[in-house]
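Q&A log
Question type: sequence-to-structure
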Amino acid sequence: MIAKLSGTVDSVAADSAVVDVNGVGYLVAASSRTLAGLNAGAAAVLHVETQVREDAIQLFGFATAAERDWFRLLLSVQGVGGRVALAILSVLTPDELQRAVAAKDTASIARANGVGPKLAARIANELKDKAGALPAGPGSAAPVVVAGGAAADALSALANLGFRPADANRAVAEAVAELGEDAAVGDLVRIALKRSARG
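Response status: OK
Response body:
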């Protein structure tokens, strides 16, 4: 089973790359985020998830172990295949995905191609208990907002205003810390917006 590839990038396509390892070219499907970091002729190290089916062996490559771990988690959800999992990881970093699942922020998950509201809700519900077991990636010290109640409504409001999931989470978490968990939605949104403007 292939777990890692170290070699030279031969070519990069829209949804995959070919990595040359000692003269053997491996076709690796990857998220747009991982592919953006690959350049033809440059050295590359990819964490790999190998899928063996009756008709094919497919390699999925990831720039970080955290991205690979989330890919595996996403595949455990019914209705999520490799293509959909990569689409989700193309729009959300592992940290953003972890926060979205914790906050049941289905709108952020549904931004990925091929993910509708029902599938996004299933992903959030099925992974909320498993997500905490994953190690946080670098720069993930932002507090996670507890799902439900006014905080979740405030998160949704900020998402509708165009905030990135990580920024919305950070702003709402700071507002909750300042006002307390019993604060009203409007107050949380007001403080979150004020803190974001200050930042």
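Response note: The longest helix spans residues 117-131.
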